Amino acid sequence: MESKFTEAHQRVSEDGYESECDKVAHLLDLMIDGEASSEEQSYFNTHIEECIPCFESHHKQKLLKGLVSGHLKRVIVPESLALSIKARIQETV
Ligand SMILES: [Zn+2]
Predict the structure, then answer these.
(1) Any idea where the domains of the chain sit in the sequence?
(2) How far apart are the CA of 76 and the centre of ligand 1, in A?
(3) pLDDT, tens digit, for every residue of 37-68?
């Protein structure tokens, strides 16, 4: 599972994060709080399109937190995708 994403994990970004995935994890927090810039949101979206581990873990987290807090209005995924992830979460609960 890791072999395909080795490149992204080994790269150290100029921002001081250990990997792009670490940076994306930080961006996720900003987005959940509604504090991410549009530039940061597009970085996040671009990354998770290429990084399946981030896509799965971060979107589940985001959806869960969004559902719990109820303040997440700006859903960054297509509604159909959000619904399918929601369905998968509910299946495992
Ligand atoms: Zn990643």
Answers:
(1) 3-92
(2) 16
(3) 999 989 988 988 888 888 887 667 767 676 65
Q: What spacing in Å lies between the alpha carbon of 80 and ligand 1's midpoint?
A: 22
Distance CA 88, CA 56 (A): 11
Buried b (16+ CB within 10 A) or exposed e, 1-32: eeeebeebeeeeeeeebebbbebbbebbeebb
Q: Is the dihedral of CA 9, 12, 16, 18 positive or negative?
A: positive
pTM of the model: 0.48
Between the CA of 20 and the centroid of ligand 1 the distance, in Å, is 6
Cα of 90 vs centre of ligand 1, distance in Å, is 24
